[in-house]
Amino acid sequence: MNEDPTYEEIMLIDEELIKLVLKRVEVLRHLDYSRVKQVLNSRRIKVAEVLSQKYSLPHDDLVHIISYVDGATLKVIKPIFVGFLGPRGSFAEEASLKVFNSQGASLVTYNSIRDVFRSVETEEVDYGVVPLENSLEGSVGETLDMLAQSSVKICGETEVRISLNLIAKPGTKIEDVMVVLSHPMALAQCRNFIYTKLKNIVVETRSSTSEAVKEAVERRGVAAIGSELAAKIYGGEVLVRGIEDHKENYTRFIVIGYRPLDVGVGVKTSIILTLKDLPGSLYRALEPFAVRGINLTKIESRPIKGRPWEYMFFIDFSGSVEDLKVREALDQLTDRVTSIKILGSYRKIP
C-alpha cells in the first residue's frame, strides 16, 4: 500500500523544520548558556509581534511555538550536570568520569547519598552517581532505602575496581609513616598490609578515603589509604600501590535520573516488591520469572523503615520492561504481591 502523498509532503516539511531548529542551535552554541537564555528570553515577545503582523497569525500561538522551540534549543545546548558522592577523588567520582567524561559533563560533589538523590529530584543536576553494592562488603543500605522512597529511576550502571594505595606527602618514605588515615571500610580491606608492612603505627578513621588523602598530604609522618585519583587531585605521592587484601574488589555504581542513558551494553531491570505474609509468597513471586527463563541476577531483602519485621525485596533480572516475556512476568507478579515498584531498565557502561 502506497503512502498518502500528503503525508509524505508533511514528513519532508517536518524534516526541514528539524534541520532549521538544529541550525538555530548551532548559531547559539558558541555563547555561554546563561547568555543564550538571556538572548532567547529577551526577543521572544518581540519576534512574535513581528511575525504575527507579517503573516497574520495569532500572537499568543506564536509565543507558545517560539517558547517551545526555545526550550528545545536550551536542552540541546545546556551542559549535563552530574552529582556524585564526594568529596573529590572518591571512587564515585571515578565512576562518574567513566560514564560521563566523554559527554563533557560538569561534576558536582555532595556530602551524602541522600543529597545526591535530592539534587536529582529537584533538577539541580541531570543525573546522580551513587554506590549500590560492593563485591566484598555487600549492598549499600542508604542507597536501597532511597531507591524505595524516591521518584528517580536507575538510568545506567558501571563497575569500578577498588584499588587502594598508601598515599602521603611527597618525599615521605614508608618508614617515616607513624599514622594511617582512611575510611573504616578501606582500613578493613587493607588489614593485612597495615599490620604486616607498617610497624607501631596509629590507625585513625575518617569519613571518606578522599578526606583522609587530603589531610595526609598536609601532615608529616601521616599516610592515607585511598585512590590514585585522590592522590592526583590533592598532590599526594603514592608510596605503595594495590595494598588491598583482595584484588577482586569491585563496587557497582548506579546512575539515577529521569532520562535513560543511550549508551552501554546489555539490559537489566530492577524492581522493589513487598509480599503478602503467607507461606510460599516469595516462591509465588519468583515463579513468573522462572517459567519464562528470565535470569534473576540479584535478590535481597531489606527492612521497611517504620514497620518492624516487615521486609521489601530488591530484585535485578536480565531483560527490559519492553520485552514481551518480561511484561508478562510483571503482569502476573502484580497479582501475587502487595506492591511493586519498577526502578528502571538500563544498560551497563563497561
From TrEMBL:
Enzyme kind, highest EC tier: lyase
Domain of life: Archaea
Keywords noted in UniProt: Amino-acid biosynthesis, Aromatic amino acid biosynthesis, Lyase, Phenylalanine biosynthesis
Domain Prephenate dehydratase residues, every copy: 81-258
Any matching Pfam family: PDT
GO cellular component term of the entry, any: cytoplasm
EC number: 4.2.1.51
Record-level Gene Ontology MF annotations: prephenate dehydratase activity
Catalysed reactions, as listed in the record: prephenate + H(+) = 3-phenylpyruvate + CO2 + H2O
Domain ACT stretches: 270-345
PROSITE patterns (alphabetical): ACT, PREPHENATE_DEHYDR_2, PREPHENATE_DEHYDR_3
Any single biological process term in GO: L-phenylalanine biosynthetic process
Pathway as given in its UniProt record: Amino-acid biosynthesis; L-phenylalanine biosynthesis; phenylpyruvate from prephenate: step 1/1
Keyword Lyase (UniProt): yes
Protein name: prephenate dehydratase
Lineage, highest ranks first: Archaea, Thermoproteota, Thermoprotei, Desulfurococcales, Desulfurococcaceae
